[in-house]
Design brief:
The chain is mostly helical and 217 residues long. Helix content is 74%, strand content 8%. It is built from 8 helices and 2 strands, in the order H-H-H-H-E-E-H-H-H-H. Strands 1-2 form a two-stranded antiparallel sheet. Strand 1 and strand 2 form a beta hairpin. The chain is globular and about 80 Å long.
């Protein structure tokens, strides 16, 4: 039982670091104003993700060869579209476009500029919970394979126990990532670092989301 629990915990911790998870969470965490708030936001994502993942995994356990096979690829595309939206919103926060008036030799000109602006911490917990729920729809066929092969699950009872421990691993993994992501931003209070993170997270969301939607990944 101990080896089963440790393996399920490790697999959950590892699962939390899937690329799409980190990209989505990063696009939201850049807006937190404290480490405590960031940890709560990360926890909201983990809870949303594992609620949906647990439901889908159990359904797959009983109905693997039915209609779910046709739906799973569409779940991945939904996640891809969501990542694109998050990326666009991050880049919108990164850039703000307006013009300044300047006077040259007595002639007033209007020059357009891109300006950077910080994100605002609004409804992050609710948003992160929803993002977690959406991401929990995808990759659950892989999750089931992990349970049936790595953990040798053969009954619903063991599957539920494994899912519970696995979920704890996901929570711990995401909380750790939340801390190491948020702490430097909040500790340094660097606007330049925040801008770099915002641009990087937004660009990664659009790129990865597009590739997922087009089934390149």
């Amino acid at each position: 039982l101990l080896s089963f629990a440790l393996l399920a915990l490790f697999l959950g911790f590892k699962h939390s670091y899937d690329s799409d998870h980190l990209i989505a969470v990063s696009n939201i965490l850049r807006n937190v104003k404290s480490v405590k708030s960031g940890i709560k936001v990360g926890l909201s994502w983990a809870m949303g993700h594992m609620i949906t993942a647990a439901i889908i995994t159990i359904l797959l356990y009983f109905f693997k060869e039915t209609f779910l096979n046709d739906l799973l690829p569409h779940f991945e595309k939904v996640v891809g579209v969501m990542l694109i939206i998050l990326g666009v919103l991050s880049l919108r926060d990164f850039f703000s476009f307006h013009s300044h008036k300047h006077s040259h030799n007595g002639v007033v000109h209007s020059h357009p500029h891109f300006h950077l602006k910080d994100g605002k911490e609004k409804h992050l917990h609710k948003h992160m919970l929803g993002i977690g729920v959406i991401q929990g729809l995808a990759s659950n066929d892989e999750l089931l394979v992990l349970f049936t092969t790595s953990l040798a699950v053969t009954s619903l009872g063991w599957l539920l126990l494994g899912l519970g421990i696995f979920s704890l691993g996901v929570v711990l993994g995401m909380l750790f990532f939340t801390f190491i992501f948020s702490y430097p931003l909040l500790k340094t209070q660097s606007r330049y670092l925040h801008r770099i993170v915002t641009f990087a997270a937004g660009s990664a969301g659009i790129l990865y989301g597009t590739m997922t939607t087009l089934s390149i990944l």
